[in-house]
């Protein structure tokens, strides 16, 4: 009894901790997403958690210019609606920025030169005067309105088009996909050789790979770039190309990839490989038909690592790629946006959400391979 | 045709440890050979050397008259069944069996025909589309055997194929293997096991190994009846043979020895006069010891210190004065003997064994 009580208490703690972590991780993402689809005016005045309630906004609208005045019953009148096409309810209004809330909706405000302004709750306004109104610019009307929640994809349209995020999204994919596939291919071959083929110096080679794991990439960036340029010049390849960054990411990803995959492949049952050898399979056959299918979980988990790392990378992209529209990756574009549009939350949140959408897809697409036990049934 | 011949075969590991020493063995086509021995005796290593998975450090291995020391496993004309089955987990039963033929680029129709034939033989036809994980242990083992059959090898190699099965299934599969052998009288089979029941029931000839040496090669009954040394005598048969230190008293066509317990025993075994007075080992199997009648001259006398009743037989553990180990006597059925009783034991002289000081048998035939 004591044990079971203890156990259930522990289970409760585990559940609470998991719940806490899930909430901690989910709330910022949800906030980002909700912010990114809100109307930009609403976003600037209230937090995302109020997204579903009406918000009170102080707005300003310029009435139609006096040129549109008409004569009615001996009065000169300008009519219109401050809310335009959008929904909402005006509660108060005023005629100057100093006193934007002087009058309740429906009241009549006396302005200069006998001009009267009336704004109704539905936004209709009426400016009337006994003499003809002068001037070319319309009267400014300050009003406070209760605006219902409004969701829109306009932010996404804007960042993908005008802000150039669409192009840099493609650039990022151009960098990331080959920079994920190339190291996995090389590493899988190397891992099989290091795990199952006997050749002199194998142990040293493994030790060298493990040693390379601790080399900080910041240290090797510039030498790498210089030697790439020298070799590139020899072959007539420009200094900043996609090939360069693919090779750089491949190089930086390989030690971990080889290490992870070798450990996994070395753990596969030896009898399966021996059996294939007796069956007449060459090393290449064994690799292709036995090892690759069986290592899929390991390949997938490394693919997730490498993909996320390359996708989120800014440093290597800055060194190996140019800053022009054709080569700027998403992280670089985001940094530019932070500088130029730092106050425009709707743009930043939409951009941020676009950058995380691909990693999320990759993770959810491949995560089932992480938990699938492919080996069940092969050996007792 | 598909003889297997080992001449002075050796296995030395990189650290100079010699695990197999000068193995000489001649296996005829169609024979069922069982390698048996205690754990670590090298029986699996020897099988793996024949298969080509383990390199041969010295000597020659011939299969079908051809030296195959440096020929890869797939070209030796062998097929191997592994202890853990070693099925390809991501392939269906059909693909598992077809794999070697696909590698060999055999025509699709031929592959299909052979796989279905083997599946028929092993009653695997309903399971051809399943993955190994959806099969029971016995079925997996049959797939492993099927995978060997489709290759039509000259030599089948079995590496402890039954040790992962439960007891009932083991008996059933053992009989299946015996049937398989009968249906393919021309194929040579080499079978490794540590279980002497498997060895005794399946083998045409048993090769008994110990610490990298062949102790004796012969039919199961030959090993039981005429063990060449103490190791073989104690390994074959359960419970193990009683070995009692003794001294040779007189030599000739019949040999008289005096046991450490004091009794003198005469055995119908020929010894040379040079053996006179030398220490030796006297052996008698528990099932050959009988409780003596009043008039008989007993070869052993002692007090029963422990009794195991198995129903079909009773095992008496007898403390004999002057001896360190207890003597075991196996009596058929249940007997009225009680713990603490004094018993006198006799044995048929033809069933007695005598080994010299180097533990080799005095019997020469």
TrEMBL record, chain A:
Protein name: Carbohydrate ABC transporter permease
Residue intervals passing through the bilayer: 12-34, 175-196, 203-222, 242-261, 290-311, 347-366
Organism: Marinomonas piezotolerans
InterPro entries membership: MetI-like, MetI-like_sf
Record localization: Cell membrane
Keyword Transmembrane helix (UniProt): yes
Keyword set, alphabetical order: Cell membrane, Membrane, Transmembrane, Transmembrane helix, Transport
Coiled coil: none
Major subcellular site: membrane
Domain ABC transmembrane type-1: 169-366
Membrane-related topology note: Multi-pass membrane protein
Keyword Mitochondrion on entry: no
GO cellular component: plasma membrane
Domain of life, source organism: Bacteria
TrEMBL record, chain B:
Any single GO CC term annotated in Swiss-Prot or TrEMBL for this entry: maltose transport complex
Xref: InterPro entries: AAA+_ATPase, ABC_transporter-like_ATP-bd, ABC_transporter-like_CS, ABC_transpr_MalK-like, ABC_transpr_MalK/UgpC-like, Mo/tungstate-bd_C_term_dom, NA-bd_OB-fold, P-loop_NTPase
Boundaries of every ABC transporter domain copy: 4-236
Keyword flag Signal: no
Taxonomy, superkingdom: Bacteria
One family name in Pfam for this protein: ABC_tran
Designated name of the protein: ABC transporter ATP-binding protein
Native organism: Marinomonas piezotolerans
Keyword annotations from UniProtKB, A to Z: ATP-binding, Nucleotide-binding, Sugar transport, Transport
Lineage: Bacteria, Pseudomonadati, Pseudomonadota, Gammaproteobacteria, Oceanospirillales
MF GO annotations: ABC-type maltose transporter activity; ATP binding; ATP hydrolysis activity
